[in-house]
Design goal:
This protein is of the alpha+beta class. It has one domain: 2-Layer Sandwich (Heat Shock Protein 90). The chain is 31% helix and 26% strand. The protein is built from 4 helices and 7 strands. A 5-stranded mixed β-sheet has the order 2-4-5-7-6. A two-stranded antiparallel sheet has the order 1-3. Helix 1 packs parallel to helix 2 and helix 2 packs antiparallel against helix 4. The model has no long low-confidence stretch (mean pLDDT 86).
């Protein structure tokens, strides 16, 4: 754990996956001082997992937005917002469980084993942070990583 610039990590993650969003685009909106006490590798892995999921599941649903800012409690918050098909309330209860997939199939054409969000959730908690999901007004999901500020 050390002081890390979360906006810079988000920019790096966005650049890694930008090509997967060529059709609909991805935008990054950092705001203010985004320094956090965190593991930079863990933050980047979480962001890559979230952006990878957005590329797989929401690519046909429009642009993806990444918002980085201080939260009301003084921590740093990264929100990955998509306009994909979204998740039901029941699915949101299970989305961070290991091997759980919204489509219920481990051999889906979308690929993956249902581990990315479970790993991301554990990494966030290991940094005294959290990872949550909510429905996005107008359709889609918002995955939010919150970590302590530096």
């Amino acid at each position: 754990m050390r002081d890390v610039d979360v906006a810079a990590l988000a920019e790096d993650a966005v650049e890694v996956v930008r090509g997967e969003f060529a059709e609909n685009g991805i935008s990054l909106q950092p705001e203010g001082n985004c320094m956090a006490m965190a593991d930079s590798d863990a933050v980047k892995q979480i962001l890559l997992n979230l952006l990878g999921n957005a590329a797989k599941y929401a690519a046909s649903g429009g642009a993806v937005e990444v918002d980085v800012r201080r939260d009301e409690e003084g921590g740093v918050r990264v929100a990955v917002m998509d306009r994909g098909p979204g998740l039901s309330a029941e699915a949101m209860e299970h989305v961070f469980e290991r091997f759980w997939r919204a489509d219920g199939a481990l051999n889906s054409e979308k690929g993956g084993l249902g581990l990315g969000l479970a790993i991301s959730h554990a990494l966030a908690e290991d940094m005294d942070g959290s990872l949550s999901v909510t429905a996005r007004e107008g359709g889609g999901c918002v995955f939010t990583l919150s970590i302590p500020a530096a």
